[in-house]
Design a protein that fits this description.
Elements lengths: L3 H15 L4 E6 L6 H10 L13 H5 L10 E8 L12 E2 L8 H20 L4 E4 L7 H7 L4 E2 L5 E2 L7 E8 L18 H5 L5 E3 L2 E2 L5 H7 L15 E3 L3 H4 L19 H5 L2 H5 L3 H7 L9 H13 L3
Helix pairs in contact: 1-4
């Protein structure tokens, strides 16, 4: 006979699967002791660049009880975004996670549904949903709950499905059965480190965020550094290089989420099409997309930066 925590855990994992999540793992809500010195060192090295928000809420990033009163469990969830169809090879490139609708909205809706289900089935449970927009170390929690290991490119990697997925959490004041961390399977491989054109992976498991192509094309609001121009390899929003070369991503399977399907122009546009894009076309192709973070002006800046290279 199952105890209550085990019964509740089975209910939650079953519903997470029904909602379309790739995987669900659960860990005890407690202070992240191992991550504290790593995060402090990373910030002290200024690896976050102009992402000043990373300096905020240091304690909350490490202690879930400061985010949810009486927190007992962190429910980590993965949602696949690997696309079946990709952009033409000869075009400027957009990171695969931004092909469809902004993942923040898609994940938030699923998390709200999961929390509502928990409250309906179990009773008075308090919790909060977190999708990459609050001070939560999602990769650390996902690793702690056995969903994968943090690779040398600092992405969460799983043996069965690689790393093309989003990570989100529900932090709840409900005691559940906790999963165990998995083992690291990067071995002696340095494919991601060797392939990074900006040398952003400064050492295994440490990424200088302020050197990453994703940072330059999304976070940096000033002019792009000219010495980086030849290194961008045609990326105009985000970068997938360290994931594309990871051997574990040969196991990636296409997602089944309709909201992540791209506008057909995104797949078929040539470099010339991107260079001549208008505000109207930008709004149409990237309606409800994460690409809108750059705004039209930022997107055009990125395209022009690469166009001027030739």
């Amino acid at each position: 006979m199952y105890n209550l925590a085990e019964k509740h855990t089975r209910l939650i994992k079953s519903e997470a699967k029904r909602l379309g999540f790739l995987a669900c793992g659960i860990s005890k809500a407690e202070f992240l002791e191992e991550e504290a010195p790593r995060l402090e060192h990373w910030l002290n090295q200024n690896y976050h660049g102009e992402m000043a928000y990373m300096e905020n809420h240091f304690d909350k990033r490490l202690n879930p009880k400061l985010l949810v009163d009486g927190a007992q469990s962190v429910i980590s969830l993965l949602l696949n975004y690997y696309p079946e169809n990709k952009q033409r090879d000869s075009s400027y490139k957009i990171s695969k996670y931004a092909y469809g609708e902004d993942y923040h909205f898609v994940l938030k809706d699923k998390l709200k549904s999961l929390l509502a289900y928990i409250q309906e089935q179990i009773g008075e449970v308090h919790g909060r949903a977190f999708v990459d927009s609050a001070p939560v170390l999602d990769k650390a929690w996902a690793a702690k709950s056995g969903l994968g290991w943090v690779g040398k490119n600092s992405n969460l990697i799983t043996r069965k499905t690689g790393s093309f997925y989003f990570i989100a959490e529900l932090i709840v004041d409900l005691k559940l059965e906790y999963d165990n961390p998995t083992t690291n399977h990067c071995g002696s491989c340095t494919a991601c480190i060797d392939a990074c054109p900006t040398e952003a992976i400064v050492s295994p498991y440490v990424v200088n965020g302020s050197q990453c192509i994703s940072y330059y094309t999304i976070e940096l609001k000033n002019n792009l550094p000219e010495d980086m121009q030849v290194r961008f390899q045609d990326w105009i929003f985000g970068c997938d290089i360290c994931q594309d070369v990871c051997p574990w991503n040969k196991f990636s399977k296409p997602h089944q989420e309709e909201k992540f399907l791209p506008h057909e122009n995104l797949l078929h546009f040539t470099k010339k099409d991107w260079e001549e894009i208008t505000q109207e076309t930008f709004n149409e192709v990237f309606k409800n997309s994460a690409v809108k973070r750059t705004k039209f002006q930022g997107f055009v800046r990125n395209v022009k930066f690469l166009k001027d290279k030739f």
